[in-house]
Amino acid sequence: MRLLGNIIWIVFGGWMIALEYIIGGIALCLTVVGIPFGIQCFKLAILGFAPFGQEVRPGSAVGGCLFLPLNIIWIIFGGFWLFLTHLFWGILFSITIIGLPFGMQHFKLAGLAFAPFGRAI
């Protein structure tokens, strides 16, 4: 079921989500200051490409004191808008029973897009 869900997800737009996060990650990694944020974009790209069968869990405690300030910077400079976008699509997909699994994946992406630091896939 995971394979079928991921194939349908990729065909109907998952590849665009992943591509946008990859392009954003590359752009952020071009600067030294943006590297941690670019790595988080790559994490979102992995989940955006194949979300079925993946789960978001708390990450390691390494760098734990920096998670909060980095998440705050992330939220201020775009994380909030990414969260709202995935929330919108999650609600839209959840209107129909057929779209419900895809809506749930957007809700999963919304949670990670809001505060990605300190979480692992």
Q: Can you describe what's shown?
A:
The chain is mostly helical and 121 residues long. The chain has one domain. It has four helices and two strands; from the N terminus they run ααβααβ. It has a two-stranded antiparallel sheet with strand order 1-2. It is globular and about 40 Å long.
Number of strands: 2
Give unreliable regions as ranges: none
Category from helices, strands and their pairing: mainly alpha
> SSE order in H/E notation?
HHEHHE
Main sheet overview: 2 strands, antiparallel
Strand order of the largest sheet: 1-2
Helix share bin: over 70%
Radius of gyration from the alpha-carbon trace, in angstroms:
14 Å
Number of helices: 4
* C-alpha termini separation: 19 Å
For the record, the count of structural domains works out to: 1
Shape: globular
Mean pLDDT: 90
Residue fraction in strands = under 5%
Brief summary:
The chain has 121 residues and is mainly alpha-helical. It is 73% helix and 3% strand. The chain has one domain (2-120).
Annotate the secondary structure layout:
Blueprint (H helix, E strand, L loop, with lengths): L1 H28 L5 H15 L7 E2 L5 H30 L6 H15 L4 E2 L1
Antiparallel strand pairs: 1-2
Helix pairs in contact: 1-2, 3-4
Which key features would you list for this structure?
73% helix; 4 helices; mainly alpha; single chain; 2 strands; 121 residues
